[in-house]
């Protein structure tokens, strides 16, 4: 689909950080144009050829673990993952050399635990669909429409062209100014109120024209793969329905919001003309319903969790806890639900309850990095610096390169009286996270106190 910024928390790092880094010139950039495989027109691209492809792949390798952690990890549902992957491969198998800017991207497809309704692609072809999205779809042809749309974004080089927008860096560092600064300088306060590890998400945002191209390409691939073009119409109807039912929810999820009616019309018109009579009724509904049964049965829980997320973002911690707990009645021990209870408690000041929920979450999903993020923050609030470092290291092993880890390490080392290590960690945060974010300002201030400039 598209992307937007999620409300999880206040920071905006992860992929945007990587894109900002790229925009700042750390990559070797060629300038010029590539041919857009959908329109046949030339488009500007900073990255081209084999070296460009290699750079996109390494960029994605850094960004994917951070995005997946923010989405509460890959779903622990082998059947759903294998199924989504199989549908994705069926689409990829139809691609021709003329369909792509970069040949042979290492496409992969997975389900992430997040409950908001979305799907997204990285420039290397790593594609994810949320549990929230799967719970809304009705058949395999609709899933093929979702995956085809994302494959088309990759094939057209849209994710690569997003890197050439210099505004990405501004987006990275804006929005959090003055937050911690207004919180005073007690870092025990900061531990409880700063951004969560693994929670901030900003994916590339696509233009309307790029969304149109992805719809066109996605529909072409799905019909080639043997699916009923009605699948794309069903997907567009879902987008329109969501936008009518809860405009603010959709605003969070799809920046394509105002164009959903237009996109539906375009799909209907193609189904009635160039794809008329193709693959009628081929939607594999039974296979879809069987493979997604464990996800769809928790749809009611996902609604509660989504409500808890927006309440958390609005600092309504008690309400968020209640919503998450109601969801857990439907989906007991769900990792997302447990993490929302943990975060609501931690932000709301009940550190012991937060630790209890996050510890359970870490047991339920040992690869769920965010549990270690919350446990690290709780440990800092309890002045348990060694414990904080342990959880920060566990987080970092699963999600390398998230700048905010350095910020919290700085706090833990400072608490232990290890001034030099603390200064190094803050410095690393300022270098990678910038000084314009709230945490960045705090880190810069601590850095001055710990290691005064000569
Ligand atoms: Zn899109």
Summarize the structure.
The radius of gyration is 22 Å and the shape is globular.
Structural features, described:
By secondary structure, the chain is mostly helical. The chain has helices at residues 15-26, 49-70, 78-92, 131-136, 140-155, 158-162, 167-173, 187-193, 208-224, 230-245, 247-253, 260-272, 285-291, 293-296, 299-313, 317-330, 335-347, 351-364, 369-381, 385-398, 403-415, 419-433, 438-450, and strands at residues 33-35, 42-44, 108-112, 119-121, 126-130. The chain has a 3-stranded mixed β-sheet with strand order 3-5-4, sandwiched between helices. A two-stranded antiparallel ribbon has the order 1-2. Helix 5 crosses helix 10 (230-245), helix 8 (187-193) runs antiparallel to helix 19 (369-381) and helix 10 crosses helix 11 (247-253). The chain is globular, with a radius of gyration of 22 Å. The relative contact order is 0.13. The structure holds zinc ion (ZN). Residues 1-2, 149, 153, 206, 211, 214 line the site of zinc ion.
Q: Which distinct ligands sit in these coordinates?
A: zinc ion
Regions with little confidence, pLDDT below 50 for 5+ residues: 2-30, 163-185
Order of helices and strands: HEEHHEEEHHHHHHHHHHHHHHHHHHHH
N-to-C CA distance: 51 Å
Number of helices: 23
Strand order of the largest sheet: 3-5-4
Mean pLDDT equals 83
The coarse silhouette is globular
The SS-based structural class is mainly alpha
Please state the CA-atom Rg, rounded to the nearest Å: 22 Å
β-strand number: 5
Strand content: under 5%
